[in-house]
Design a protein that fits this description.
By secondary structure, the chain is α+β, with helices and mostly antiparallel strands. Among the domains are: 3-87 and 249-340, no CATH class; 119-201, no CATH class; 455-607, 2-Layer Sandwich (Heat Shock Protein 90). It is built from 18 helices and 16 strands. The strands form five sheets. Strands 11-13-14-16-15 form a five-stranded mixed sheet. β13 and β14 (534-541) form a beta hairpin. The two termini are 51 Å apart.
Length: 610
């Protein structure tokens, strides 16, 4: 593969990787913003619900106390004034029924607050409207939504969704006393029919109780006229003087009495804290938070549950809601909570997105790196194979040329008549053919090793005898270069199981390399010893050695240590690759140590026969 092609591939893959990283970053940032917005909405809904519960709890508690007072007062009045016994009995009955009615209304109010907290644009409708337009699908086309802009108390313009319908002559009256709401599901600002949903809540009041209370109040009114000034409570007197109904005056008085108490006496911080935890837990928020309760501009309570917020309070988002909004006048207090570790909470909620994305990113980077490694490795292998082909061509060309020259010489009648010269030329042809055959066998062995088709015998082999035989066969080459072998085969257990021919080739290759890469006055030490259940054969020479960079590559196919323009060492770069592969197949291994210009040491480790 050309260099320009490799550069283009790397550039395109890098561009694709950067694009994926950018898209993942944008997706994570957008997801974080959405999670943060949902978190804010959940917390605001939770504290709004808590404020409503606190207000309802106070009203119910005060109503119980007031009821006990009224009961006690009624008992005292009955004992004092026997003439008012029936009046007091009716009064007590009315108050009891009102309390029941109040419980009904409180249940309704709680559900209504929850509904409005979830759907701020909810619209209450009459039951006749529901029966006429919504329950009859053919009349839903007359329903129209509109937006009305009104000024709030803060002189701000606020949009309200309004619901109306075209007039229909055959309107149907309501068939029950349930309270119904319409929840718009689409943006009413666009000129399209708005989809909606209907929510049904229990009645605001029990009709039977209301009828009974009305009847009792009429009866009490008759008794009051008969007993004009003979016995009224404070509310009755104020109502008579002001021309108002007694229940209305009583409600106003209760509200005034509640509002007179200090805010700190109206709240229990433990209850507030538990209510907040409960509401947040219902919205899957279980993180620690801090609480602040304010009265006008003064802080009444600062309950620090997490000290982390004290270090950087300006970057903390606070959520607030008014307390006791039902009091006459402005709300007397404000409840505020904030989360010091909001970012960590949102990040934890995004963990299910972040981990797979990181895993995919690492997988993509790994594939990119692996691809580059494979590309450079294949380029290197291609170059090495090119060198191998060049070397093989040179190695084949020399014996072929020699055979050709010897064959042509045999055609000469003078040489053909000389028997000794003919015999010499025949020996040359034979030797060169053997050399060619050896080269071919080495290439074929390489092919068999790669295809896993090389069959190895499994016979008992004496390593000491095998090494001695290989050394004896190479003594003549060693003497020709003026070198010598030092042999110390001290292993007492030298029988291994394997292929004798390939074992011979292993040691031949190692000794052949020692001779080829010598630098004069070659000295090769050959030792054997037993280490545990193995035999270790060491072949150490004082040749040219090699650097650490070459040491890591000598077992690769086709690799030869570069010698520049000098080609005095013949070979294909297959010997050590063959040695390592054969030893691996025979359950052995080979290690090497070398230092430049100081020599090389090979260790062949084989398991002995048990």
């Amino acid at each position: 593969m050309k260099k320009n092609s490799i550069v283009l591939i790397i550039g395109l893959m890098s561009l694709a990787l950067i694009g994926v990283l950018a898209m993942q970053f944008y997706f994570l940032r957008d997801s974080y913003r959405q999670k943060s917005q949902l978190f804010d909405e959940s917390v605001n809904a939770a504290i709004t619900a808590v404020a409503g519960k606190l207000e309802r709890r106070e009203v119910v508690d005060f109503a119980k106390v007031q009821q006990e007072r009224n009961i006690e007062k009624s008992k005292q009045e009955q004992a004092k004034q026997r003439l008012l016994a029936e009046q007091l009995e009716i009064q007590y009955r009315i108050e009891e029924l009102k309390n029941k009615q109040h419980v009904v209304f409180s249940n309704f109010k709680e559900q209504e607050d929850q509904l409005r907290a979830l759907y701020p644009n909810v619209i209450e409708i009459k039951n006749s409207f529901y029966e006429t337009y919504i329950k009859r699908p053919e009349y839903q086309k007359f329903i129209k939504f509109s937006v009305s802009n009104e000024l709030t108390d803060d002189n701000l313009v606020q949009a309200f969704i309004m619901l109306n319908a075209s007039k229909v002559d055959d309107q149907i009256s309501g068939k029950d006393d349930s309270t119904r709401f319409v929840i718009p599901l689409m943006d009413p600002l666009v000129n399209q029919q708005t989809k909606f949903r209907v929510a049904t809540l229990p009645p605001r009041e029990n009709a039977k109780l209301a009828k009974t209370i009305s009847d009792l109040e009429k009866r009490l009114d008759i008794l009051n006229r008969k007993n004009a000034w003979s016995g009224f409570n404070v509310y009755d007197s104020v109502a008579m003087l002001g021309g108002k109904k007694a229940d209305y005056i009583e409600d106003v008085a209760i509200g005034m009495e509640l509002a007179k108490r200090p805010l700190k006496d109206r709240l229990n911080v433990i209850i507030v804290q538990e209510l907040i935890k409960e509401e947040l837990a219902q919205r899957d928020i279980k993180a620690p938070f801090n609480i602040e309760i304010w009265s006008t501009n003064n802080i009444l309570l600062n309950n620090i549950l997490n000290e982390a917020a004290l270090n950087n309070p300006t970057n903390t988002t606070k959520y607030s809601t008014a307390l006791f909004k039902g009091d006459i006048g402005a709300a007397p207090g404000k409840l505020t909570i904030y989360f010091p570790n909001k970012k960590a909470i949102i990040a934890d909620n995004m963990g299910y997105l972040l981990l797979p994305m990181l895993a995919l990113l690492f997988l993509l980077v790994g594939c990119f790196a692996y691809t580059l490694i494979i590309i450079f490795r294949q380029k290197k292998v291609s170059e090495m194979k090119t060198d191998f082909i060049n070397n093989m061509t040179h190695e084949f060309k020399t014996p072929v040329a020699t055979i050709m020259i010897a064959s042509e010489s045999l055609k000469d009648p003078d040489i053909n008549a000389d028997h000794k010269r003919v015999q010499k030329l025949a020996n040359i042809i034979y030797d060169e053919n053997v050399r060619l055959g050896n080269h071919i066998e080495r290439v074929l062995d390489l092919a068999r090793l790669e295809k896993e088709t090389l069959k190895l015998d499994q016979v008992e082999v004496s390593i000491n005898d095998l090494v001695s035989a290989v050394t004896d066969s190479m003594q003549l080459r060693m003497q020709n270069i003026g070198g010598k072998f030092s042999i110390d085969l001290a292993a007492t257990k030298d029988i291994v199981v394997g292929d004798e021919l390939h074992f011979s080739n292993v040691f031949y290759n190692l000794l052949d390399n020692a001779i080829k890469y010598s630098k004069g006055d070659l000295h090769v030490n050959i030792n054997s010893k037993n280490v545990g259940d193995t035999i270790v054969v060491t072949i150490a020479d004082n040749g040219i050695g090699m650097s650490r960079d070459h040491l890591q590559k000598i077992f690769d196919q086709f690799y030869r240590i570069p010698t520049g323009n000098v080609h005095n060492v013949k070979g294909f770069g297959l010997g050590l690759s063959y040695v390592q592969d054969i030893l691996r197949r025979l359950n052995g291994k080979i290690t090497v140590k070398s230092e430049k210009d100081k020599g090389t040491t090979f260790e062949v480790i084989l398991p002995i026969k048990k």
